[in-house]
Amino acid sequence: MATEELAGTKRLALLGVLTALCVVLRIFKIIPVPNVQPVTTIIMLTTLFVSGGMGFALAILTMIISNIFLGFGIWTIPQILAYGGCVLTILLFKKLTPLTKWFWLQLALVAFLGIEYGILVDLGMTIFGGLPAFIAYWAGSILFDTYHAIGNVVFYLLLYKPISLALKHLFED
Question: Global pTM?
Answer without folding.
Answer: 0.92
